Amino acid sequence: MPRGARHVETGILRPSQYGLYALEMDGGGIWQLDVGWGWKARKLVGQRVTVEGTRAGFNLLDVRRIKIKGEGRSR
C-alpha cells in the first residue's frame, strides 16, 4: 500500500521505542504508531483499541485518532 493511505486497525496498544507506540494486531503484524499527543495514549496501553491514521512508512502510521474498541468517542 502506498504512503498516505488511510488505515483503520484494531489490536492491543503497547509501548515501543523512541517514544512511539505499537499496535499488535490480532492476525499478527505490528504497526509502529506516531502519536504526537502520546501523553493521552499512555493511559490506553495494554487495552484493545481501534486506531485511525495515515501510512507514513513501511510499518508506521501517523495517528489521527485512537479509541477503545467498542467506544464511540476517541482519545
Automatic annotation (TrEMBL):
Top-level taxon in the UniProt lineage: Bacteria
One Pfam family it belongs to: DUF5818
Name of the featured protein: DUF5818 domain-containing protein
Species name: Pelagerythrobacter marensis
